[in-house]
Design goal:
Blueprint (H helix, E strand, L loop, with lengths): L4 H14 L5 H13 L5 H26 L1 H8 L7 H14 L1 H7 L10 H6 L4 H26 L5 H34 L1
Length: 191
Amino acid sequence: MTALGEIGVGFLVLLETVFPPIPSEVVLPLAGFLSQQGQMNAVLVFVIATIGSYAGALVLYFLGAKLGEERVVRGLSKLPLVDREDFERAAGWFHRHGRSAVFFGRLIPGVRSLISLPAGAEHMPLVTFSIFTAAGSAVWNALLIGLGYFLGTQYHLVDQYSQYFDIVLYGAIAALIIWLVVRRVRRRREA
């Protein structure tokens, strides 16, 4: 990681976005730890990782726009370690929640990369997609880099405990969805 430097971190994050089996949960905390040790610049790591995330998301966005959702899902689901269900989950999330799916999707493992495909296939405005993708990526990157930085030599615990973060995040998303459903039901009853 030290040899790759900040640019290498950005490149790995770009690859992680395009090829989901590469785990950012390992790359970014390690970069944060190396920043804490003075071997990397934490701000530069964050900026370049966010640019890498965005660039990878753009690749998938344009792939979705060019080929359409079904062709992309069919082709990419043939990759090793990638399941069709991951693509379908991301697409379903996008169809139900639009812009917020792009933002929150960047925070959910398994959906983080793939949410760009249905956004492109549905021709979500590029400016809107860019804003929500960059914001979600920035939050995710800051969290993982920051955890690696502050945990120091214990940065490997981030991967071990990220499952608990996932549970909290899924709970928050479930609560949001329940609230949206309740709100919709109330509005229909009032109408």
